Amino acid sequence: MNEGGECKILKIEKSSAGLDNNSQYSTHSPAPTQTSQFQSTTQSPKLLTLSEAAQLTKQSIIALGDSINSRNFGSFHSGPSKLWQRQTTPEQLAESFQSFVDAKIDLTVIRPLEPPFDKEPFLDENGVLKLTGHFPTSPARLLFNLSFISEDQLWKLVRVNVTTKFSEE
Q1: pLDDT in tens, 77-100
Q2: Which residues contact 142 (CB under 8 A, 6 or more apart)?
């Protein structure tokens, strides 16, 4: 969000954690991810194809998963927008995702999967690319809501919300 000539991150969320077989909702938290290879122009970013959006989604969530698994958020911190990097540290990311680390949630299980999008990828009124959907993981689905800004002609992560939801049977 541009506020008084200064950009600010719109939202950082943290909820209780854990992939818990007794819980319908497990966890969601935001964090940045690796640099994207998907280009846009600074003045008028282009919308990605569904295939490109799926690749960007997987790249972002796998990068987060790798950081959780390694318990090292340094490389993950270097990937998001410069805005995000200025507003958080690798230590703050580690603290935000400690519940994922403690619960040994492995987001990298999505590697062979393709994410169906629950909404068509779109640019909001501020030019922020929004990607919302899920991965058909089991026993819980992995839901995601990602936001990217155009920076240096690349899509860079500014928000991530990842949630696991157990099916109601």
Answers
A1: 888 788 888 888 999 989 988 888
A2: 61, 107, 110, 134, 135, 162, 163, 164
